[in-house]
## 1
Amino acid sequence: MVEEKKKSADPGVVELLEMKEKDETFPTTAWDRYDIMQPQCRFGELGICCTICLQGPCRINPTGKEPSRGVCGATAYTIVSRNLIRKIAAGCAAHSDHGRHIAHTLKALLEGKTDAYSIKGEEKVKTVAKRIGIEVEGKDTNTLAKEVLDMALEDYSRHDEETPLIWTKTIVTPERFEILDRCDVVPYNIDATIAEVMHRTHIGVDADPVPLIFNGIKCAIADLAGEHISTDISDILFGVPELTVTESNLGVLKENSVNVAMHGHNPVLSEVIADVAEELQEEVTAAGAEGINLVGICCTGNELLMRRGIPLATNFASQELALLTGVLDAMIVDYQCIYPSLGWWAQCFHTRLISTSNLCRQTGDTHIEFNPKTAKEDAKKILRLAIEAFKNRGTREVNIPDYKETCVVGFSMEQVEEILRTQSDDPMQYMVDQIKEGKVAGIAAIVGCNNIKTCHDEAHLKVARELIRNNVLIIATGCAAGAYVRAGLANSNATKEIAGEGLKEFLTTLGKGMNLDEPLPPIWHMGSCVDNSRIHDFVTAIANKMGVDIKDLPVVASAPEAMSEKAVVIGTWLVATGWPTHVGILPFIHGSDLVVQVAENTARDVYGGYFVFETDADKAAKRLVNIIKQRRWKLGIGTDEEIVYANGQTAHELFEETEEKKATVANGGK
């Protein structure tokens, strides 16, 4: 160990890591590999290492001394900007390709090429059709779904550069669309926008940081559309999530069952696996097991958690440790956030690592290609491999940490409206009233990943607890949401023990409205990382009801443990749509003061949103609370006495001091 530091806030993860340290026969964990990697390249951390052409790598001196330019003449701000927007393009590609795969599954269903699926979200078909301008009267579900699908696929392939993405224009406020259009960052084609970033950043093309960054923002807006398409079509195929009570953490694994973990981001195969699992009970019993125990990891896990109540075992950083329990019989992976190390880990156990996408192969895997036409057969084949693995467990010690938490999940936009409708026929007006009255001081979107650079899950928990104490309602997705359900922050006990009085009253009232004996949780789990579109819709509906834009609302976003290129693109569109956005892991841009200035300040002037880079979670949480108070004050629904600046002064005190200084100057310094 290079430096002894706390590795995780999850006691189950800590228990398994301590056990692993005593046995040198196991492969390294992500934490081990991070320590071995120290010290990490400072040039790379600052974003001033360029490998775009084969004349490099070129490393720019961050002090301004030589070398101050790359071989081609690129300066620090060019290199940082290019590196940054390539990450944005990669994140957009991941999210939007996810949406394309879901769309192709719906296409196969509508063309009669698969019997593994049905349209479970019939009302969602109508909702989406109306939003994007399709006439719904007199049309059956399949006809409408086909029209929705055609318009979604057109957003990937449109050649008319004058026509904006349908899934951009129809989901933002009118004011926000005008801002984006004025800045020339409204995309017309998702794929073309990604291609433009890659072309623009090729050697010898754009070297000006301003158009480079604006092109990155345009790509981020395309990502928001791609995420929204993913969510919409998933809801059409698999149903709109509803409130579900279930359990999470490593303790959901069962020693006497065939344990199957579904890991990744795309639910098209995992949904079918859940459908057919019960059909194999006779084979399971013959193998000596009690049943098939399905669990989730990462965002495929989040999809199954919110729609089916299938428990979430763990999240990104600790995925290897699910194998260390000794009872995981199969890990089924689709794509995104899959550690390449899983192949080594599977070889140390009886676990079958089964890849299902040609995009994501792993050394040592068993590959069963997913195809909608053969989805049921593929699912059964995979589950039978898990049953065979169960028979081969042998006598290895079982280590299932005794930690699991109850969680309430399934907060889709439709479910949220239904919850609010228990209090008013105008649900969004009720939400607006709660914000104006201060029972809900504001809303925080907490999203993103885990990062081994910081203590696993700890920053997520610190930021959330401080916001909840200050009456801020949290809406969460991805591995952040996974951290909360495993830590017990997504249940009624968290409301009782942590929430400020106003938020507690709000959540208790809603719980009663839903005929529950307990309050709703202070964190609303909205799904996987593509489901940030639900967050956007919720806050946009509030903005529209208030007659303002998101940039005027008491809302903030945070990625306390940002890690992936997807997190970079999500953060970018959050800022571009008006959110102050905290990032807890410094992105690779600090080699250029100009780019940092654009992210922290210029963005605020242009879009109303801006980045807050702060690695200390406690400081970040306090700053986010203060931003919410400032925005309340500007809206005229808060008091300036609530706002505390970094120097400890309230806004009222600062105003008085400023007026006193003005008076002194007016009196000739007396």
## 2
Amino acid sequence: MSDTPPTVSAVTATPHQLSFDELETPLSETTFVVVDLETTGTNPADDAITEIGAVKIRGGEVIGEMATLVDPGIRLPPQIVAITGITTAMLVGAPRIEAVLPSFLEFAEGAVLVAHNAPFDTGFLRSAAARMDITWPSFTVLCTVKLARRILTRDEAPSVKLAHLARLFAVETTPTHRALDDARATVDVLHALIARVGNQGVHSLTELLEYLPDVSAHQRAKRSFAADLPRTPGVYLFRGPSDEVLYIGTASNLRRRVRSYFTGSETRTRMKEMVALATRVDHVECEHALEAGVRELRLLAAHTPPYNRRSKYPMKGWWICLTREAFPRFSVVRAPTNECLGPFRTRAAALESADALATSCGIRTCTTRITRGEPHGPACPPNTVRDCPARAVRSEVDYTAPETVRALWRGDTDEPLRVLRTTMEQLSDARLFETAARLRDHTAQLTHALARMQALAAFAAIDEVVLARPRQPAQDKTGSSADGWEFAVIRCGRLAAAGVAPRGTAPMAVVNQLTLSAQTVIPDDTPLRGASPEEVALLLRWAREPDCRIVSSTHGWASPLRSAGAWAQWTALAVAGATSAL
């Protein structure tokens, strides 16, 4: 130790540092910087650092050390002097943290930061960086206290204090509450802990960070399922003993994602059960994440795997339709028709929205058929009241009501929504607050369904649109420079082709090839032209990203003039009001 500015002793030449973006970075090729601090107290906001000790290691070898006392600018409390042996006199002439911290950050750059009780040490370092207006680097941090508690049983290690672990593993350096000595002892403890899990298949940095003791040997042994998977975007399928599909998922890196199921990062009981049943993993490589998402939806619909909870039935839902009669009425059905609104998740939600529509449009809701010989229709018999979604019987027919409903669904008018809002205000003025609240909730549900349907239908109405987004470099997902382009050819709301143009490749040549080889799509006359609502929604989200560009389109893409999207703010307020009332 010295009271001079920080010194760095290079034991050996520092090898080239590998990237940590890859899951397969071996521990033997990972650079660690083990750091320990001595401080004037335990609160980073009020106390200060008095000593920093750090050891840089790689492949089990020490490649550098850093040690310095730090002048905190205050007298040391007696209890700190008693613990560390550092006195105020020893700190006279020592550098301030403003001179030390930049040197430490340079020393630790590109390495995994390790500390015993890491939140304590990193908390003081972060606080010092904040006071100096220095941006704290995005270090990967490993805490040997947490790692020891995961690896060692309480019978073996009742305490995970550094001194106890040093005695347990018989390390060469004894902790002394001085920074460099404690950092050296932590290095030996880290190596001992890594040796403990090495025979359990933990050989990479990510596996070490995710290690949990309750991962069975049988589960960890199935890591071989991911051995031949590529590090590319795609869809993976876990298969069971009878070759049935158990689970389907997507990944930006297939090997990394599948391997995570065989480590401690997977804590869901349901997934552990699935992994125990799995006998192999199939995969489908994709050009980019959008194609992977679409293929996942289609495979979920085809296989309905038991361990997936969402999107297994993309075409199922409840739709409000106008019946094909001389005087149409509302009907809630499972399959969409050419004149419908939906899908709703439950039949009750569809009936409530039909009720609100009937209230505002004057549509016939009873089941009695009106004959052409009776233009105004007979009065509905009393026993038909229970069949009316609006719970109201109408004796006269508004011949314009069906067209009003169609115009509302197309987005050509929002007058029925205005009628509902006026009705709510009238009910509220009459102090019928519960009735007004029910109508508010039903109207909010209706406007949300309308806005979603109109947006999806407008996008699905385009016969063909080619979209492009910048492709981020594989090793730097946060980088600003694009590594080429990702393309999607969308026809009638369905993904027909996907591809990429790496940097240096003429993008339009790729686009021309994609459009020529794209899937042929035959639409129907339903609002989404036969496409799955979930697939259209996924494509629409991709198209709405700020960096997405339209390369070509058969015709314009626009929302209807009077679409319910303009009611988004009102809908949000209505939903907030309903939530606050719970």
